[in-house]
Amino acid sequence: MSKQVLFSILFLTFCFQVFSQKSIEELTSQLEKTTEKKARFELLDELTKKTVNENSDRKIAFLKEYISLGKEFKEYDLFAKKSRFLIEHFTSIAQLDSTKYYVDEMLGYKKLFKDPTTEAHLLLKRASFFYNTDKYQKAIADYKRSGDIFIKENKGVINAADARLFTAQVYNDLNEFLNAVTNYEEAYKLYDELNDNFYKNFTLAELAGIYSQNGFHEKSIAEREKVLQNAKEIKDYTSLCYAYGNLAKIHQKVKNFDKVKKYIDSTTIYVDSVQNRQQKVMSNLFLANLNVDYNLDLDNVTEAEKYLEEAKTWVQKSSAPEFFQRMNYEYQAKVYSKKKDYRKAEEALKKVLALKGQEGQEEKVKSAEKELAKVYGATGQYKKAFEHLNTYLELEEANNKLIKDNTFLYYQSKFETERKDQEIFKKKTEIELLSKDKEIEKQKRRLTVAILLIVFLISFMVFYVLWRKAKRKRRALAREIVDLNTEVTTKKEEVNELLAETIIHLRSKEKLAENLSKLSHEEEGVSLRSIIADLKADKLEDSKIVILKQNIESLNYEFLKSLKNQHPNLTKTDIEVCSFIKIGLSRKEISSLRKTSIDAIKSTRFRLKKKLNLGADQSLDEYIKSI
């Protein structure tokens, strides 16, 4: 980066800070002149955002007033959201009683929250409190519950992913391998949904690391290859170097030297593509040490010594030669032991043992105990050899027992999962067959109805045809009857005339009576009634409130100067954490000095690594101490 560009960035940063400060002063002045509560509540919303972002001392008073007014206006989600920053403040200054008080008070309004993720954010804070008070199981329970809510509501997926990642790390601290693996895998899926390549690679690297530690080399290789693929997609050459290099290390453990050579060659290719000077130095140092180990395994001591000298050169080119020299003693000890220069080997191994107790150095220390026992044995110092060998065996036994237990649990879990999958498949098959049977029965009923309908139609048509024929016959018969009646009437008239004449003629008194009858026919009708039922459905309310969180800590100006040239984009909190890492403090020590939670330090470290453009497999501690 040119001096002109660096100056522009610094100037813009300064202007932004001045503008923000002025805005805070203006809002504060406006607040002092405002007495109406609703207006004060709205002003405090802006003021709390700005003072939290600037880490102003006045944020506490503003937050407390905001929460108080929020209670009056019954804006439960809003003031609970703001309370998170107040809780973070008390956690950061180690006032854990106040942390618990505010968390419990806010969760007391849980039934009044409209947005379930409000509770989820508070659970994250309470989990952090439990972790800081060594209540790991309670911390795990809150992390899990928080992640479940974010996933169910399909809001704040990044928070759900972080919750799963933190859960995995707590399980890892408790040496609960299986639960750690499960939560790492869930975190990876969520980061993958977000297309967050950095944290995808970070999670996979953590997963690959615990697989390797527990003897699952094939699983570790598979995860490293995923890291490799992700790094290729985003053209992260530094991550590619470390991904290939770590694959070489894994294959070296199983003595697959052809693949070790292949991955070392790939690492060599991508080292040249690394642009950042310090990252290039570190990548070359990493590569040189890979070649030292590879050649020692092949008994090529001369080649190994050549690469050791090359590593020393890269150490001197680094920004922290003393630190990297200290981290490189294990390779010196290996070469000196192979050369039977036991005095130098002993000196180097003792320096490795000085790393005992430091995070991530357990494997180096254990290996150094074993090598030192060999050195003392070769020089006739059997008592010392026995002591170091005994220490090594104790460490190895504890490690093997852990690996054995974790292996058993892992395969047991896989067996149970497969058995559950088989049961689920069986149930699904039965359900599908039952559904098909129901469908067949349904089709049969439809076919029966169709056949009955066809029979009815055919019967109706036959009846209609017969009815039409009968009607024609009735009409013909009616005409015949009419004709016959006409003829009978005519005959009757003739007979009557004859009878009349006869009666007159015979002078007899006879009467003729005719009786007529009528036929009536009535038809009956039938009426039907219909019945209608009404159904009612409940409706649920849902609102969307996006809750964001950002907290920036104070900065040590002296260390700012040492990092600004290389990384001008770092925040005050980033540089303060870097300064603590630089002097070799552990996470708990940093947490104590900064008076914040280990959980918060972890989050800062994760994001800091991304800002420093480090690969998922690069050590943040090593890089910071190199500056």
From TrEMBL:
Residues 474-501 form a coiled coil. TPR repeats lie at residues 366-399. Keywords: Coiled coil, Membrane, TPR repeat, Transmembrane, Transmembrane helix. Gene3D superfamilies: Tetratricopeptide repeat domain (1.25.40.10). Pfam families: TPR_8. The keyword Coiled coil applies. PROSITE patterns: TPR (PS50005). It comes from the Bacteria. InterPro entries: Sig_transdc_resp-reg_C-effctor, TPR-like_helical_dom_sf, TPR_rpt. The chain crosses the membrane at residues 447-467. This is HTH luxR-type domain-containing protein. It comes from Tenacibaculum platacis.
